[in-house]
């Protein structure tokens, strides 16, 4: 067990997060300390950080990073940046400096590797060129459908395998919540910039349920789905039918997401999918025939037993299938997932392979004309690496960008939805969450409804 006494700090949270990148959770302790090092504290494997008593948090983190790097022999590429939104500090610098200057500054301020600094620079470049300022009077709307055909081994979302009657019961309450939230939005003059129906897998619902859902959103918020960015996740190919996609298309939905995660049949079996790569190809074929503007495809780097060649083959196929958006996730192994229960330390393995997968994805996607347009990180990702959304120019999702900017209200409806109210006066977000279990959502439905008033307090 390593012990790190960190001098002249109020709270050890950020230092603990940084140490986690290098060491297992039970392999260290960080202690906020004030004063001179005391000999009896500094036994074997105990270290004192910031002996000179600096007040500069970034300077202390750099010293701590170098210490951890010396102990473990690794240099994680995100340097001292531990938050989920690495683009945020970069964009703040871009308010006053050029993108080139920003890249140089973040490299030295946060000890970023050259590749990560240039990735942030590419994303900042894209957003500055293609994304307009945030419309303060508009919100995003997120709706959760917490059902999937099976549960994936790495899943930590509010997702359930439930019989069809449960889908219907859930939908009936959800439609009421949408009507109520729409009325509040109208009374308060809130308009929507984008809508995202996720989960779970929304296309677990049948086509008439999907039609009722989308029609209710359109009526409650007075929108025409074809005139607003409106995404519906059709993530699992085993839920896709021509009938459902026809319904979505007829109602004006232009963006869907089909999420293979891998095109290797063995991997799909290992992660608990009940479909194969041919089903994914068929899903794409139906979606193309139906005629959506944008199909997003998610892939995951670091799935069990996958090597670089497997990942390359999956990515090549997504590019060949012409997905307009390709999102490359690093596997995150969180509490609540089967993978975490079976192998709690899984996320600490294979960092080099996954890093090579991300590097390869950048090379292949750039060569195929894609641009990186949003980025985020999660806890317990292999190698503390990242997720990056790539798009063909102009085909980005504004919802994904806004959600990462943290400067817009997101209205969250349905089980597992986490909404946020943005207060521009003090640049603050207030979280308003629905419960994640769909049965409790129905049991406590009155509470879910009254929580919607909190968006307008
Ligand atoms: S498709 Fe997504 S939400 Fe559904 S079980 Fe798999 S990881 Fe969870």
What does the secondary structure layout of this molecule look like, with pairings?
Layout: E1 2-7, H1 13-22, E2 28-33, E3 46-49, H2 57-72, H3 87-94, H4 99-110, H5 114-130, E4 138-145, H6 164-187, E5 191-199, H7 207-221, E6 229-233, H8 242-250, E7 255-257, H9 265-270, H10 277-290, E8 294-301, H11 308-321, E9 325-330, H12 338-342, H13 351-367, E10 371-376, E11 387-391, H14 398-405, E12 410-413, E13 418-423, E14 428-433, H15 438-443, H16 445-451
Parallel strand pairs: 1-2, 1-3, 4-5, 4-12, 5-6, 6-7, 7-8, 8-9
Antiparallel strand pairs: 9-11, 10-11, 13-14
Helix pairs in contact: 1-2, 3-4, 3-5, 4-5, 6-7, 7-8, 11-13
The chain binds iron/sulfur cluster (SF4).
The site of iron/sulfur cluster has 11 residues, from loops.
């Amino acid at each position: 067990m390593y012990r790190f006494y960190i001098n002249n700090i109020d709270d050890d949270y950020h230092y603990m997060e940084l140490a986690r990148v290098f060491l297992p959770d039970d392999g260290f302790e960080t202690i906020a300390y004030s004063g001179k090092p005391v000999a009896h504290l500094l036994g074997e494997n105990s270290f004192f950080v910031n002996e000179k008593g600096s007040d500069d948090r970034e300077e202390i983190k750099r010293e701590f990073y170098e210490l951890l790097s010396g102990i473990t022999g690794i240099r994680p590429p995100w340097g001292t940046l531990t938050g989920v939104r690495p683009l945020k500090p970069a964009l703040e610098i871009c308010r006053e400096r050029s993108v080139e200057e920003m890249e140089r500054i973040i490299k030295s301020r946060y000890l970023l590797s050259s590749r990560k600094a240039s990735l942030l620079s590419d994303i900042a470049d894209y957003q500055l060129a293609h994304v307009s300022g945030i419309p303060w009077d508009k919100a995003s709307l997120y709706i959760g459908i917490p059902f999937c055909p099976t549960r994936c081994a790495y899943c930590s979302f509010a997702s359930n395998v439930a019989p069809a009657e449960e889908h219907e019961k859930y939908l009936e309450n959800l439609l009421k919540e949408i009507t109520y939230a729409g009325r509040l939005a109208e009374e308060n003059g809130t308009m929507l910039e984008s809508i995202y129906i996720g989960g779970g897998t929304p296309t677990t619902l049948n086509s008439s349920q999907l039609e009722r859902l989308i029609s209710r959103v359109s009526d409650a918020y007075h929108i025409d789905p074809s005139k607003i960015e409106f995404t519906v996740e059709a993530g699992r190919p085993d839920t896709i039918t021509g009938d459902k996609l026809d319904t979505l298309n007829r109602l004006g939905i232009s963006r869907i997401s089909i999420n293979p995660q891998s095109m290797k049949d063995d991997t799909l079996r290992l992660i608990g999918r009940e479909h194969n790569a041919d089903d994914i190809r068929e899903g794409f074929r139906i979606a193309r025939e139906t005629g959506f503007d944008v199909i997003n495809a998610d892939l995951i780097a670091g799935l069990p037993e996958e090597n670089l060649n497997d990942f390359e083959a999956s990515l090549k196929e997504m590019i060949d299938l012409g997905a307009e958006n390709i999102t490359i996730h690093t596997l995150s192994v969180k509490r609540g997932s089967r993978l975490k229960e079976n192998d709690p330390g899984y996320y600490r393995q294979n960092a080099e392979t996954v890093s090579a997968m991300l590097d390869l994805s950048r090379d292949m996607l750039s060569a195929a004309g894609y641009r990186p347009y949003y980025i985020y990180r999660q806890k317990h990702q292999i190698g503390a690496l990242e997720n990056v959304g790539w798009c063909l120019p102009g085909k980005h999702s504004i919802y994904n960008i806004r959600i990462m900017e943290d400067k817009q209200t997101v209205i969250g409806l349905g089980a597992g939805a986490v909404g946020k109210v943005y207060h521009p006066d003090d640049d603050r977000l207030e979280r308003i969450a629905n419960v994640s279990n769909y049965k409790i959502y129905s049991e406590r439905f009155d509470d879910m409804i009254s929580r919607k008033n909190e968006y307008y307090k």
